[in-house]
Amino acid sequence: MVTDKVGAIIAAAGRGERMGGVDKMLALLGGKPVLARVIATFEGCKAIDQIVVVVSQENVEQAKKLIDEHKWSKVTEVCPGGELRQDSVAAGLKRLEDCDWVVIHDGARPLVTADLIERGLKAAKEGGAAVAAVPVVDTIKIADDNQIVRQTLMRDWLWAAQTPQVFRFDIIAKAYPPAEGEVTDDATLVERLGYQVKLYSGAYDNIKITTPDDLILAEVLYRKYGR
Q1: What does pTM read for this prediction?
Q2: CATH H-level, domain 6-225: superfamily
Q3: Which of 72, 110, 115, 217 has a beta carbon 3.0–4.6 Å from 37's, enabling a disulfide?
């Protein structure tokens, strides 16, 4: 039986401007770099055939050394990213080889699990695109430039998007390179093409490390779940 080939892009080229000078990709989580935690999960996921790691130019050699040390066989390339996140994903897409599906994940979300990846692939096969997300638990208000509330949104309709985000290769390839202007996730580009994007249940502990406090919380969650 011929099975679909699945490639993964780990987008880890962010500058980490809110980390107070700490490189979040190389910061330790459970005694190992954050980036290593992410790669190890994708390497161990049976559904993944190929991994491309996209890092900042200054971290390319360090990432290659990390991969060599762990002998991760699914990682086929480490490449430098671009100025914006979408530039880094575009660079990763160019280096995938004959993939039918693409799983894109933020390198700053180290508590991802193989189950979360595999459920994303299952959800994406319904229509070609799926995004991990969790229901918003806070009340969200829209305010003007003077911080005056203009609208309170219905919470029942709001979801916080995460990664993994999973796409059929031809769909995500058509979405890149993106139009001018920054976008914060890959699904936005796919939505602009008119494709429907399926949300599937993410995890509240699938946090993104953006600040030093996030790293502390990730350490607590790592110890709790033993990932």
Answers
A1: 0.94
A2: Spore Coat Polysaccharide Biosynthesis Protein SpsA; Chain A (3.90.550.10)
A3: 110
Q: How far apart are CA 19 and CA 27, in angstroms?
A: 10
Alpha carbon distance 55, 84 (integer Å):
12
- pLDDT per residue, tens digit, the chain (227 aa), is 346 999 999 999 977 667 766 788 899 999 999 999 999 999 999 999 999 999 999 999 999 999 999 999 999 999 999 888 999 999 999 999 999 999 999 999 999 999 999 999 999 999 999 999 999 999 999 999 999 999 999 988 999 999 999 999 999 999 998 767 788 899 999 999 999 999 999 999 999 999 999 999 999 999 887 66
The residue type of 104 is: I
Say how many C-beta atoms besides its own lie within 10 A of residue 65's C-beta: 11
